[in-house]
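Customer ticket, subject: "Can you confirm the structure for Type 1 fimbrial protein?"

Message body: Hello, I'm evaluating your service for our small team and ran a test protein. I'd like someone to confirm that this is what the system normally returns, since I don't have a reference to compare against.
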Amino acid sequence: MNKKLMMAMLAAGSVLTMTNALAAAGTVNFNGNI
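Agent reply: Thanks for trying us out. I re-ran your input and got the following:
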């Protein structure tokens, strides 16, 4: 149970990190295009 919780937290964290990275890249591209 504890191990599954840790894995779920790690998965959620990596998804948030990827989302933030994509958002940051998108913002840079958007600003660059203007």
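A couple of notes from the result: The radius of gyration is 15 Å. The helical segments are 2-33. Feel free to reply with more questions.
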